[in-house]
Amino acid sequence: MINTTRGDRSLRSFIDTENGTLSRELYVNPDVFQQEMEQIFARCWLFLGHESLVPNPGDFVVTRMGTEEVLLVRDRKDKQIRAFLNSCRHRGEKVCRYDQGNALVFTCPFHAWTYDSKGQLVGANGINNPNSYNGELDREQWGLVEVAQFKNYYGTLWATWDRNAPSFEDYLGPFAEPVRYMAESTDGEDAGLEVFTPFQKWRVPTNWKVPAFTSSRDPEHGAMTHRSINAAAIGPMRELQGGDRHRQRNPLPRDIYVAGDHNLGHGGAWVEYKQPGLAPYVDAWYEPGVDDYFRAQHAKKQEKYKDRIVPFAGHDSGHICIWPNFIMDAWRWRFWHPHQVGVVERWSLFGIDKKAPKHVKDAIRHYAMRYNGPSGCTESDDMENWNYVYPASQGVIARQHNYNFANGFGRGVEREGFPGKIVFNTNRTEEAHRARFSRWIAFMEAGSWDDLYPINKTANHRIW
Amino acid sequence: METPKQYDLTGVHGADVFRNLPEGLTLRMVTGAIVEIVENARNGAILYVRVVENEANPSSVGDEEYVFFTDVKEVVS
Questions:
Q1: Using the beta-carbon criterion (under 8 Å), do B45 and A114 form an inter-chain contact?
Q2: pTM, two decimal places
Q3: pLDDT digits over B17-40, tens only?
């Protein structure tokens, strides 16, 4: 039940599955937010970052899982990457207050409880003093809190706090191959990317679901929201940015859908190619030599895929959302860390071939900067919308009027041969957004993973 | 042996001196053990050391451990 100004209501009553609408209360109510942290962010597999952020022993990055900071660190001895809650086991102080770096140990500034890069307690003030701990503090028991499951998936790093969560591959389901594909370098090499560092992160005064649920495959926002920047053609597609680039870059026969997996919550662009191979490379860059590099890389990738059909989200298809807060396309990985009901922190990682020469890395980095983030020309358009959605939805009158999620409502179809509850709809609909809410209500109501697909293989979470 | 002047761990500069102690230096612990710095965390608080001499516990010679600055009495050489 959720406490509202108009009485207690069940979560399900906020979603009008007959008409494709849902209450703004779900975006502005603090009780909903707190339940989301417990029901969703404490149980889901969440994206933490990329292995190239911590290339050397002792390297660390402070990332987040929901509202909590997580220390991502590569061990100095076995070189493995692990993730720990950034909170001392003694009194809860942060053991690391830097964003990124390299450390021998993490020493709490309160009582000097000290942890090594495996998270083990290795020291504290007074640990051997006969008048203090007297050697009785159990170092094995009082290490940093480690995530329950961790996965390095082709260089992308994921974790969950729930030891009963399914395997990461089962969690992704049919979306595993597209994630793998998008972590390839431009010549088709698995895990061939690195990300730029430092990366972009900033806070946006809105509810996390505003961008995380509806910024993946939301084609009807582009013409209005990005009209000016599309006209300016900031590239790299130059004049093709206005709408022709996909026809030129992606001429293989294909069917284009918006698909939402109502059981898994993932979804977005779903392009079914009808033949193996990749389309020819199309020059797109202003900077000298950049097209030469990518053209040569593309030829290698064409060779790899000459007899294979690329995954449905590959090859310039658009982007997909991995439930609950990660949006991915071939060069840009965006994730949304909730802070409060009306504050979300956005992180953006930009992938570039590890082996690319400096002039290519510079071109990609410059493009990423002028396109993305608070100073980027395109995402600043989006932020203006996200920022105003929240205050305009908070009022007592506003809360009485549902959001409309009905684009394509009732037209989606399930198809033979696809697992779970994947609903295919026409390519400019909000099917993937609706799938997010099918999964959302399933998580909010579930007592444990036993109630949730894919642990519960017979579950049907589709609500609309 | 007198503490080398540049490694005086007392006074207002003690923390900064401790933070920059180089690897290879030997220290006397408050327990009397002599240790060698293997790695300095450079946070002004923690060193990773190897035990060189320890009359109270000879079997610990060769052990490596983390020590807190209050465990260190002085720099030997």
A1: yes
A2: 0.94
A3: 999 999 999 999 999 999 999 999
For residue B37, report the phi and psi dihedrals to the nearest 5 degrees: -75, 120
**Number of CB pairs, chain A paired with chain B, less than 8 A apart:** 38
A103, A116, A125 ranked by CB distance to B68: nearest: A125
Reply yes or no on whether the pLDDT at A230 is more than 90: no
Using pLDDT thresholds of 50, 70 and 90, give the confidence band for residue A56.
Answer: very high
CA distance B68 to chain A (A): 6
Which tokens belong to A84? 């720990």
What residues contact A269, with CB distance under 8 A and at least 6 apart? A217, A256, A257, A258, A312, A313, A317, A318, A319, A320, A427
Q: Which residues face A352 on adjacent strands?
A: A194
Across chain A, mean pLDDT equals 92
Residue at A162 is within a domain: no
CB-CB contact of A260 with A239 (8 Å) = no
Could you tell me the CATH number of the domain that includes residue A232?
A: 3.90.380.10
CA distances to A171, A277, A315, A413 from A273, rounded to whole Å, are 24, 9, 10, 19
pLDDT at A236: 54
Q: B68, B69, B70: which to substitute to probe chain A, counting the most A Cβ within 10 Å? A: B68
The gap from C-alpha B7 to its chain's centroid, in whole angstroms, comes to 11
Rounded mean pLDDT, A130-158: 97
Looking at CATH, the fold of the domain delimited by B5-75 is given as SH3 type barrels. (2.30.30)
In this prediction, residue A335 has a pLDDT band, given cuts at 50, 70 and 90, of: very high
Beta strands, E only, A154-216? 156-160, 193-195, 200-204
Interface confidence, given as ipTM, is 0.92
Q: Are residues A122 and A186 in the same domain?
A: no
Which of A104, A124, A125 is facing B41, going by the closest CB pair?
Answer: A104
For residue A396, the 8-state DSSP code is T
Distance from CA of A123 to the nearest CA of B (A): 6
Q: For A51, list phi and psi in degrees, rounded to 5.
A: -60, -25
Range of the domain at A188: 1-44+167-464
Model confidence at A232: pLDDT above 80: no
- Rounded to 5°, the CA angle A83-A162-A203 comes to 60
In tens, the pLDDT along A283-309 reads 888 899 999 999 999 999 999 999 999
Give the residues across from A349 on adjacent strands: A333
Q: How far does the CA of residue A79 sit from the closest CA of chain B (Å)?
A: 18
